């Protein structure tokens, strides 16, 4: 072989050998990495199926576990903790231990807020130490715990009741409509005033005057202002609409066809006015005029008209609405059991437009069909829907009607209202739906604002986690120990969330960390009045002292030592 050709061949063999040796030392490519989330703990508690935690400390330790080691440098942009107001918490990140980089620990740099809903999100931008991106997104829901420390100094129970009555009264005095003096429907209603809520407010003003929270003369002046306005406001057969314009006195339609008389709202207004007529009994010109003007409004209500005079004559039932534009189109009969006992009592008591007992028996009592008689949570319920319905059934008409020792062929009314209250209370204590916060000191379901549905008649049969302070507080005559326990919890423990310019806010849900910013006349008024009935029986005694009421209730078959 030629020397040059041999040299080239040798070189090729050497190069081939070197190349083969080099390839054998290169590691094979790594298989694809399975980077997945495997679980979470919050303060050592493992997550549920939907990764939701309640009553979490404000300085939680959140551990997120994965299948492979995680890159901490990617955590700050991929993991967030945001509250329900879209505010992000500042976080710090670490490994669970020096030997466990598959688990990262997430902690807020400063304490979170109590009773606040937070969402922890882990985005797909999170990377493993090899740079693999997470293959899914994780959401963890966190609801922080109640701060059990007192928000206000402790005072005596009597002083606390004074404070609640005084503060809540401001809704009906400081916030009263400047022209009419009537109660606005709610704190955002502007010129819209409510007839029924004004009736409750009048009773609240009486309680305040009797306790010297306001001067008797101031109370007389405001109620006279209301009465003067009512004499000029829209009326339909003597009955007022649900809403009025507080400046003009013109009807404000509650709905399209509800633009005329509302008999139930009128009854609640008259309940308050009759209590005022009985309270302001001095021989002064001011109080004599007030009594006379109230009597004129009372005697003008044509209760019997609302038996719906059509066809062959009046029906033996009262109708809720009548409209000058739609007549009886609303077609809603007032039948029990609910909050509307008062229209039947007043209709039977009217000295000018009364109705006979058959209207009560056939219409309201449905000839006994309003009876229940079943037992719920250990308490027999004489009347109404199963579990009793919302608690305002035992409040609105009983601001004036005294239920103690009151009976007729259908029920013992003290038993009805007390047992209704205790069913509501025990339902909340049992908390079968596991709503956060329900307890022996946090209870009460009734109609109020709602964070999901705007406004809802909450009850054991219609419960979405919303507590209404008026429910437990207005039940004080029926369950004093349970109501006062709720009052103390609302004021001392939740006071920074609930206690505002006009007393307690309308409603809240600890389960959703939601607190209403509203106040409603029909919820604030019963708080003052029923606390007063618990303390002194004042409004019960005033209303039941009306000669017409005594006669009317007797004519319906009621029995009571107060008649």
From TrEMBL:
<feature type="signal peptide">
    <location>
        <begin position="1"/>
        <end position="24"/>
    </location>
</feature>
<dbReference type="Pfam" id="PF11329">
    <property type="entry name" value="DUF3131"/>
</dbReference>
<protein>
    <submittedName>
        <fullName>Glucoamylase family protein</fullName>
    </submittedName>
</protein>
<keyword id="KW-0732">Signal</keyword>
<feature type="domain" description="Glycoamylase-like">
    <location>
        <begin position="332"/>
        <end position="547"/>
    </location>
</feature>
<dbReference type="InterPro" id="IPR019282">
    <property type="entry name" value="Glycoamylase-like_cons_dom"/>
</dbReference>
<feature type="domain" description="DUF3131">
    <location>
        <begin position="168"/>
        <end position="253"/>
    </location>
</feature>
<dbReference type="InterPro" id="IPR021478">
    <property type="entry name" value="DUF3131"/>
</dbReference>
<dbReference type="Pfam" id="PF10091">
    <property type="entry name" value="Glycoamylase"/>
</dbReference>
């Amino acid at each position: 072989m030629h020397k040059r050709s041999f040299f080239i061949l040798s070189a090729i063999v050497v190069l081939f050998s070197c190349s083969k040796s080099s390839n054998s030392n290169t590691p094979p490519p790594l298989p694809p990495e399975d980077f997945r989330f495997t679980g979470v703990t919050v303060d050592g508690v493992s997550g549920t199926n939907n990764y939701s935690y309640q009553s979490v400390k404000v300085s939680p330790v959140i551990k997120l576990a994965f299948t492979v080691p995680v890159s901490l440098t990617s955590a700050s942009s991929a993991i967030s903790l945001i509250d329900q107001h879209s505010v992000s918490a500042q976080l710090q990140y670490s490994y669970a231990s020096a030997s466990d980089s598959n688990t990262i620990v997430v902690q807020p740099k400063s304490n979170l807020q109590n009773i606040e809903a937070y969402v922890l999100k882990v985005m797909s931008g999170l990377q493993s130490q090899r740079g693999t991106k997470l293959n899914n997104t994780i959401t963890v829901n966190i609801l922080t715990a109640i701060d059990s420390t007192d928000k206000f100094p402790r005072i005596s129970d009597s002083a606390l009741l004074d404070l609640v009555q005084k503060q809540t009264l401001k809704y009906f005095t400081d916030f009263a409509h400047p022209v009419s003096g009537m109660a606005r429907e709610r704190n955002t209603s502007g010129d819209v005033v409510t007839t029924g809520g004004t009736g409750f407010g009048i009773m609240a003003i009486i309680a305040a005057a009797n306790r010297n929270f306001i001067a008797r003369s101031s109370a007389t002046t405001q109620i006279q202002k209301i009465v003067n306005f009512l004499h000029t406001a829209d009326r339909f057969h003597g009955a007022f609409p649900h809403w009025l314009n507080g400046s003009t006195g013109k009807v404000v339609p509650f709905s399209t066809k509800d633009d005329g008389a509302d008999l139930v709202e009128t009854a609640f207004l008259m309940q308050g006015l009759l209590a005022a007529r009985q309270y302001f009994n001095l021989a002064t010109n001011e109080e004599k005029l007030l009594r006379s003007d109230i009597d004129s409004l009372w005697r003008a209500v044509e209760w019997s008209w609302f038996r719906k005079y059509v066809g062959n004559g009046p029906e033996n039932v009262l109708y809720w609405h009548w409209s000058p534009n739609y007549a009886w189109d609303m077609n809603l009969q007032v039948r029990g059991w609910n909050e509307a006992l008062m229209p039947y009592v007043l209709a039977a008591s009217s000295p000018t437009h009364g109705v006979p007992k058959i209207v009560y028996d056939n219409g309201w009592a449905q000839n006994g069909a309003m009876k229940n008689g079943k037992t719920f949570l250990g308490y027999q319920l004489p009347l109404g829907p199963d579990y009793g319905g919302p608690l305002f059934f035992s409040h609105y008409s009983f601001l004036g009607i005294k239920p103690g020792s009151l009976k007729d062929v259908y029920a013992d009314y003290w038993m009805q209202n007390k047992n209704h209250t205790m069913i509501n209370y025990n339902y909340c204590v049992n908390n079968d739906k596991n709503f956060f916060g329900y307890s022996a000191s946090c209870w009460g379901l009734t109609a109020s604002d709602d964070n999901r549905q705007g406004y809802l008649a909450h009850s054991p049969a219609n419960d979405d986690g919303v507590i209404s302070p008026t429910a437990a507080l207005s039940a004080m005559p029926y369950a004093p120990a349970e109501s006062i326990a709720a009052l103390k919890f609302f004021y001392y423990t939740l006071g920074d969330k609930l206690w505002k310019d006009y007393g307690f806010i309308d409603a809240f849900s600890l389960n959703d960390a939601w607190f209403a910013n509203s106040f409603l006349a029909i919820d604030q008024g019963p708080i003052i009045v029923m606390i007063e009935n618990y303390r002194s029986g004042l409004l019960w005694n005033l209303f039941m002292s009306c000669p017409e009421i005594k006669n009317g209730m007797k004519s319906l078959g009621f029995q009571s030592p107060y008649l």
